[in-house]
Inverse folding.
């Protein structure tokens, strides 16, 4: 028997049940179900969780315990990993996402480098009184591509003036009815969306960043057979750049220790040899490693 499609909405509104954005997303998912998608939908409100703001300690990049590890982040990460489709949704606050949503993104710092939700479907949504929806949509779509998801795009509605007052709700539902039906058909038939320009861009950015980390590590450590040596031209180029800089050997060693967790993630999956997001998405996902840690270890991922 085929399992239901598990849809998780992370709601950045502090108002939960009174949120216009919550109503907007619920209507869209209802339209997906009416179009024939067998689903179960969970809405998690960040306004009812304890996800504190990042302290910038960089512990997570070094596989060390987060000082805020006793909050609700780990359980939320598990929900994100186990869902089939992720929806990021929040109202527009001063032309951007809410503080609750931004705190989540900042705490998922290491996730920006490892595409942990690779291959999942996604969507973003926002409501606003008058404007700001474009900036929020672009930011959401960038984050969803960074996490490795295939997005159906961004939906938005003006007229969400104050909590519980959403006179344009019916109009918004009608506007996105066809998109909901299209998404339902794609998911039902397990189709893959084409690689987007944002996915290509974020892969290029992250591949360059992690290749740099790999090169620094190669220069700082005595490589062994288990290492993934960077291309010779990158090593030569990096040596030339460092020779002209004022960076000391001790500083090179410090740089090489940054992003240890992300480096290990890429190395273990053979991603340094991948050349495109399309190629990355076709690689099998190591499910046994796709679970968050116990509260005892508090590592970013195991």
């Amino acid at each position: 028997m085929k399992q239901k499609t598990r849809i998780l909405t992370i709601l950045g509104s502090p108002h939960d049940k009174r949120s216009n954005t919550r109503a907007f997303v619920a209507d869209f998912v209802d339209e997906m179900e009416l179009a024939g998608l067998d689903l179960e939908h969970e809405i998690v409100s960040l306004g009812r969780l304890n996800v504190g703001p990042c302290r910038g300690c960089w512990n997570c990049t070094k596989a060390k315990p987060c000082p805020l590890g006793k909050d609700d982040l780990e359980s939320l990460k598990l929900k994100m990993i186990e869902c089939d489709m992720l929806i990021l949704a929040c109202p527009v606050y001063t032309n951007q996402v809410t503080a609750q949503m931004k705190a989540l993104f900042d705490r998922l710092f290491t996730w920006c480098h490892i595409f942990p939700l690779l291959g999942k479907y996604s969507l973003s949504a926002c409501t606003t009184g008058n404007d700001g929806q474009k900036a929020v949509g672009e930011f959401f779509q960038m984050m969803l591509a960074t996490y490795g998801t295939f997005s159906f795009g961004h939906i938005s509605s003006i007229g969400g003036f104050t909590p519980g007052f959403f006179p344009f709700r019916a109009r918004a539902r009608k506007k996105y009815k066809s998109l909901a039906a299209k998404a339902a058909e794609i998911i039902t038939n397990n189709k893959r969306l084409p690689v987007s320009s944002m996915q290509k861009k974020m892969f290029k950015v992250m591949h360059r960043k992690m290749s740099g980390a790999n090169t620094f590590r190669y220069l700082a450590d005595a490589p062994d057979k288990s290492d993934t040596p960077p291309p010779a031209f990158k090593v030569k180029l990096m040596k030339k750049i460092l020779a002209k800089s004022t960076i000391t050997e001790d500083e090179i060693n410090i740089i090489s220790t940054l992003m240890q967790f992300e480096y290990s993630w890429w190395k273990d999956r053979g991603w340094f040899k991948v050349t495109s997001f399309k190629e990355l998405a076709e690689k099998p996902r190591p499910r046994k490693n796709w679970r968050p840690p116990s509260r005892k270890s508090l590592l970013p991922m195991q």
Remarks:
- The chain is about 40% helix and 15% strand.
- Residues 60 and 231 are 28 Å apart (CA to CA).
- Confidence is low (pLDDT under 50) at residues 286-302.
